[in-house]
Design a protein that fits this description.
The protein is built from 2 helices and 17 strands. It is mostly beta strands and about 260 residues long. The protein has a single domain, classed as Jelly Rolls. Strand 13 and strand 14 form a beta hairpin.
Length: about 260
Amino acid sequence: MRAFALVCILLLAFSCKQAPKPEESQWIQLFNGKDLVDWQPKFNHYELGYNFNNTFRVEDGLMTVSYDEWDSISDEFGHIFYRDMFSYYILRVEYRFIGEQVPGGPGWAFRNNGAMLHCQSPESMLIDQEFPVSIEGQLLGGEGERTTGNLCTPGTNVYISDTLVEQHCINSTSKLYPGDQWVTIEFHVYGDKAIYHIIEGDTVMAYSKPTVGGYSLPEGYHLPPGTPVSEGYISFQAESHPTQFRKIELLDLSDKYR
């Protein structure tokens, strides 16, 4: 496994706790391939549960972020939350980008989605809140030199090699994945100890000790800056570019590591 250069110390320190290869029957299928009954949308400016412009849907057995009922977008960014909270787990996602970005979408949101880890509850989001407080494992489609599996930190900070990092987004060391190809990424999440982004067996990003704070923390957030973030919900984004997911599955490690 190729270690991310800036975090070799972290990887060595936690290597003894890597999960053994699980049986396939142990994985929980968060997306059942049929419907979104276990998921709940939240769009900026709208009440929880309102699926603005029928954006989140299932098409041909795929969870789809669709913009065919949109004329344009300003800042109506959306997230769809799984029903349960998790703390120690492996999340495996297969995704791809399709079609064209909806008019009005910002340049940074081109072929851009994200697996939002350790999210605040959807019920605690404000009506006018663009992104949940969370750790974002970026899902990007290649154009130029854009890597995927990057880290972004809405309302959070992390440590890399025992150094507090307050930069909002940090690029990974992944390969490029242009076009509409399917990409499989895993997120190995160990509470507030360590998180790894892994693609094709390579660790492309690793960090530790997520805490509340930093960029875009909502005013009046119920937890003060510096609070460890050890658990939360999982959500995926609608940021203006059509996206499909054919697998979202999770291995719960809480019994093994807590």
